[in-house]
Write a structure and sequence with these properties.
The chain is α/β, with parallel strands linked by helices and 307 residues long. It contains 11 helices and 15 strands. It has an 8-stranded parallel β-sheet with strand order 9-8-7-10-11-14-12-13. Strand 3 and strand 4 form a beta hairpin. Helix 2 packs across helix 3, helix 2 packs across helix 11 and helix 3 packs across helix 11.
């Protein structure tokens, strides 16, 4: 028997700290070669987009896929989770879970790649996904100051009040002097300039997963002492920041390899860039946390599938 979990269930059960730990474990397994992840694939039916991505995480006892559609101004997300013998474990409405796992991946990367000590953090973007970026950073880092910038002043102030941040009047004000910078926008063109970025800072680009959209300027990408990606295979298809800059994607380092101790970020004073595109493996990691919590709390609808 499988569980059907609705968005309201996920919002009740998803725990950022637990999801961050699961994402880190899954990425370490990917770096060690015991987990698998296939990049997102897209088809374009009339009026929309269908996306499918899938993975296997033996360490978590699961395999599965995420599929989602974008049409008529709405996105609909669904995760299908199986055990390692192929039996269905859960169907999960996964909009909120996707936001949580994307934030969790940023938190994992920041824990490993950010410079030591208390951090000034600058976030560009004040939308739905930006909230879980902040939540993960607050979970994973010691933050001395949190700054946010978004183009809409009213929305920026409302967001800053909700997350306990300082609203900034410009992107430059949010970025200068920050040890960690996160971009979570829908912009197709760079939202910051390379000279604004502090030496040694970590810059996380998390808003784009299309090859023609770039949040970062080419000068920052080429000037980084390391470019770390969630997965090389995914970056070759989706990393607009790298592809539009003419960067050699194959020279980037995979986060899983860093977590597994198979690769290291070189020392130096130049910034480090982390390119976050989104992985089904993160969805599986988050789903294991949500499913375990649902079972413990007796939440969800039991359904019979593929008997």
């Amino acid at each position: 028997m499988a569980l059907l979990l609705r968005e309201a269930d996920v919002e009740q059960l998803a725990d950022m700290a637990g999801v961050m730990d699961a994402v880190e474990a899954a990425m370490r397994d990917l770096g060690e070669g015991s987990a698998e992840n296939q990049p997102r694939r897209r088809v374009f039916p009339r009026g929309g987009v269908l996306n499918v991505m899938f993975a296997s995480w033996p360490g978590g006892g699961v395999s599965g896929l995420k599929t989602y559609t974008v049409a008529a101004g709405r996105a609909r997300f669904l995760v299908v989770l199986y055990d390692l013998e192929g039996a269905p474990l859960a169907l999960i409405e996964a909009d909120h879970m996707g936001s949580i796992r994307t934030g969790a991946a940023t938190g994992v990367a920041a824990r490993r790649l950010a410079p030591p000590g208390p951090k000034t953090v600058g976030v560009i973007g004040t939308g739905y996904q930006a909230r879980t970026q902040v939540l993960a950073l607050q979970q994973g880092l010691e933050i001395a100051e949190l700054r946010v910038f978004g183009r809409d002043a009213e929305r920026r102030n409302r967001f800053a009040s909700a997350v306990g941040a300082t609203p900034c009047a410009s992107a430059e004000e949010a970025v200068r002097g920050a040890q960690v910078v996160v971009t979570m926008t829908t912009s197709a063109t760079p939202v910051l300039e390379a000279p604004w970025v502090e030496p040694g800072a970590l810059v996380v680009a998390a808003g784009s997963n299309y090859p023609t959209r770039a949040e970062l300027p080419p000068e920052l990408v080429h000037g980084a002492r390391a470019v770390v990606v969630d997965q090389l295979e995914t970056a070759r298809l989706e990393s607009g920041d790298l592809l539009t800059a003419g960067y050699d994607v194959d020279s980037a380092i995979e986060l899983g390899a860093v977590l597994a101790g198979r690769a290291a970020v070189p020392e130096g004073t130049a910034p480090v860039v982390f390119e976050s595109h989104g992985m089904a493996l993160w969805d599986l990691a988050a789903a294991t946390i949500v499913l375990a919590a649902a079972r413990a709390a007796g939440v969800g609808e039991t359904i019979s599938l593929l008997d």
